[in-house]
Design brief:
Strand order of the largest sheet: 1-2
Strand content: under 5%
Largest sheet: 2 strands, antiparallel
Oligomer: single chain
Order of helices and strands: HHHEEH
Number of helices: 4
Number of strands: 2
Distance between the termini: 33 Å
Length: 86
Amino acid sequence: MAQVPLNAIRAFDAVVRTGSFKAAAESLCVTQSAVSHQVRHLEDWLGRPLFDRSGPRPRLLSEGEDLARVAALSLDGSAAACARLG
């Protein structure tokens, strides 16, 4: 399997945390389109959808729940390690 797309994981985590692609884009200081493309890239890489986009807000599918937990822990752990070094 190819290397994990970390930027896509970061975008995915931001959507999960904020509840929307627009808010995720604002928190990452990128466009909404960039977040959408990154999440789509992750879904393509995994071979499955992570969100139901049919409603007004994206709804995390069961396939994405485990990834969301692990991504949050990993990103938080990385941030904490960097803070300790800085």
